[in-house]
Amino acid sequence: MEIAQKPTNETQRLAAIKSLNLPNEYNQEALDRITHLASVICNTPIALVTLLTENEQLFLSKKGIAAHKTTRDVAFCSHTIMHDKNIMVVPDALEDPRFSDNPLVTKEPNIRFYAGVPIKTVDGYPLGSLCVIDNKPSALNEDQSTALQTLALHVNHIIELQEKNTKLNRLNEQLEEAYKSLESFSYSAAHDLREPIKSIEGSMRYLMNHSEKEFSTDERELLELSVGSAEKLNDLVEDLLTFSKQHAFSPDDFEIVDVNQIIDNVKTAYAITIKNKKVTLNAVALPIVKAHRLGLQIVFHNLIGNALKYTREGIAPKIVVSALDRGSIWEFSVTDNGIGFSNEFAKEIFKPFVRLHSTDAFRGSGLGLALTQKIVTRHGGEITASGIEGKGSVFTFSIAK
User: Fold this and answer.
1) What pLDDT, in 10s, does the model give residues 85-122?
2) Which domains does the chain have, with CATH numbers?
């Protein structure tokens, strides 16, 4: 009996198997349909989808055989993954010196005929094979050979989908951890900011009411704006403290919310920036919706805040907030004429800690849009972004009715 050599990339191949969490996670039903078809098309009593681990051959799917695995040294599929053609066919194992004294030939299941096609990862690492087996000598005609190779491609697609799902699950776990860290940070930051903000508000009020200096109209207006902003910021901090304690909110927490009032609150919070930058901020036909009040306020606070931050030098900033009734959803847009961005980053900007601009030019943590997306998702909606560098950007999000 000839024992097959191992691939030169055996270490990477085994790492690929581990990363896919095989054999623990795979689509059993889909593979079973393929082994059944392979058996019928090739007219063989046995069909298998095999996985070659370091020392064993595992059967991910099987038809016509009771065993669940064999040792790797006797596996025909160990030869298949080393074969230099798309398919390896053994018409009569007793006449083949590689297999004539193989225990799988001389004993149960008494293999005589074997045909196998390698199955591979996206990166080309061989995992095992799709094979058909008979206990009498046989052969495949051209149609059967083509069909077996086509079915093996379908197994590859199933493995590829498993690979993508595994990566997606890992990313979701990492994202969830990032959100937990964000919520923890939000609580800590909000808690630490509460007293300084109250102190600033109190100092401004004392200055307005007890100062011996006679303030000009502009100076008094600026102080009043500062007090109003501090009040709104204090309210937002208190709300953040409450929000950060909740890892998630459900539709049971939703209430009737006037989006116009939300925008008024955001305008008040950014009153000084709006005044200093001479921003035109228009809100067009905004509806009353059912939503998580604080969550929706954070969404608009972040989107409008970004539009106020990323303005162009020498260009009067314009921001438009609009809404459209799309039947089962409300669709909102925040449009600006700021510095914009390249659309190749339209999805990247929603990832935690991703920033398109240096912290020297624009302050920020890179977490705001990640939190915004999470809140929108919990409202049964989606958020997208589009931009043109040097022209502006549009952020569009939906919430279920």
Assistant:
1) 889 999 999 999 999 999 999 999 999 999 999 999 88
2) 10-169 (3.30.450.40), 248-401 (3.30.565.10)
